[in-house]
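Hi P.,

Sorry for the delay on this. The queue was packed all week, but I finally got your sequence through. Input first:
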Amino acid sequence: MHVNHRKLLDAIFAVCGVPDSHFRPISSAVDKLDKTPWNVVRNEMVHEKGLAPEVADKIWSYVQMHGSADLVGKLQADAQLTGQKSANEALEDLDKLFRYLTLYGVMDKVIFDLKLARGLDYYTGVIFEAVLTKYQYNPDLGDDQVAVGSVAGGGRYDELVGKLDPRQRRVPCIGASIGVERIFAIKEVQMAELNIQTKTVETEVYVASAQKNLMEERMKLCGYLWANGFKAEMAFKRNPKMLDQLQYCEKNQVELCVIVGGAELEAGIVKIRDVITREEFEVKRDQLAGELRVFLEKVRQRTNQSSSKQTTTN
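Then the structure:
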């Protein structure tokens, strides 16, 4: 977790000589430092946002600082910075926050990072972002890396409700958002590294037919399976090829396939096929639900054991 304070950032800008009207544009530039080299950000500050070069360099002397709770004391010893009321308020807030995090035993997961700015204007206090340390962006590696930005972030905004409320009541607030797409992107990479396939359907049992003109029999079996609590499906084609049906099961990791044909109908049985091992077993129609539950349990135990072995090996 990277943590900073909006009031502290504003105080740094004031000490460095940034005009009040430039606080937010300069804050947006600082926010790019996690992915952009300082010389590029400095060029933006000076040539695009009209900041004096010496002011930009003074900002850099502050925002490159990062560390743990002891950085608060170092900043409190900066007489020029603590001449700003907002800086004192921010450092008191952070000192209390870090003390509480230490009591909870999680301060080792927190970095006090002065370049953290977050772009939204309504933040008034502590701001934070969560990153995955293994997948942080490294500017030296360029595009040849698996990396994402923050996977969660938020902060304090004590004035936002008052701006929307006709009575302008001051309501203290803090909020956070989670980067679901970024988290899923990393999970996909991790699963690929472990050679774990992603199951994209919930289907447990696929109903297939080995011959033509058995669509209604497949429909009847699906209805029976649904009524007994199974997640089942069948091909929508009237006469699907057997190979296509089995390949669908393999591609989508459907554990079991129930197969019906003319001979099975006459004998009052169906076949249960284990999609992975390709073993087939004949069961009576009136015993199908019970037998399927037994087979599903075996298949899931096998899958869990396989996943555990892969995780241990990797």
